[in-house]
Amino acid sequence: MELPADYHVHTYLCKHADGDPEDYLAAATARGLPEICFTDHAPAPCGYDPKHRMMIDQVPTYHNILAGLPRDGACKVRVGIEADYYPDCEQFLRPWLESQPFDLVMGSVHYIQGWGFDNPDNLPVWETVDVEQTWRRYFELVGRLAQSRLFDMVAHLDLPKKFGHRPRHAALVDAAKRALDQVAAAGMGIELNTSGLRRKVAEIYPAQAILELARARDIPICFGSDAHQPEEVGHAFDKAVRLARAAGYTACARFVKRRLSLVPLDG
Ligand code: ZN
Ligand code: FE
Ligand code: FE
Ligand code: ZN
After folding, report:
1. pTM > 0.85
2. Distance from the CA of 217 to the center of ligand 4, in angstroms?
3. Which of 59, 172, 210, 266 is exposed most, by the fewest CB atoms within 10 A?
4. Distance 157 CA to ligand 1 centre (A)
5. Region for 149 from its dihedrals, namely left if φ exceeds 0, alpha if ψ lies in -120 to 50, beta otherwise
6. How far is the CA of 136 from the centre of ligand 3 (A)?
């Protein structure tokens, strides 16, 4: 089986990933991946979550490190970014993203009203909130992320399931549908992110039911390991391709300079 590109890997600049970008590329090449796109956590000069991202003055270093990677191997190198959507992010992000030569911009929601709901340190907060309302708020933010037109793909679409907190299926579908309508209207895609397999939930983001809703709306997909260690690159991509196929997908998205084209899924 020929595996798809890994469009979601990090670098040490975000302060919580290890290894050299060269090791990530070597791992991708060893796994036979056709392409790897670095999408490290974007800076947020307003002071939003500074512990988990590069600083604005490290952006030139980010570009320099990635520009220094060997380009003559079998695995192509792309340069992207994972940028958080949060209320008021646009003031910085819109001009900044326009100024950057990225191949891909992943949009993520990691916070609901100042609560980093996927951070294990904040796990106790889940005991104090209404799970269904949390999911509704999360998908509202994903909808706004899409409406902003700042991003190319939505990362890890059902991230609130990370620690196993789930709403009723009907409520999940209802909230997800609204968000996916906005994602489709924005011409964006969604990521199949295998990092969930390495968490308590032990599932790919998003679940097959949500992926089928995306397929019904013709929303393109890409694949991401969300590697924070070199050995996680391309993790369980065979499983992810099977999930995509089960949901009816026959192609995945490829990005160069933020322009999408479709590549047939192999295997
Ligand atoms: Zn991270
Ligand atoms: Fe993320
Ligand atoms: Fe990530
Ligand atoms: Zn991520």
Report:
1. yes
2. 23
3. 266
4. 15
5. left
6. 22
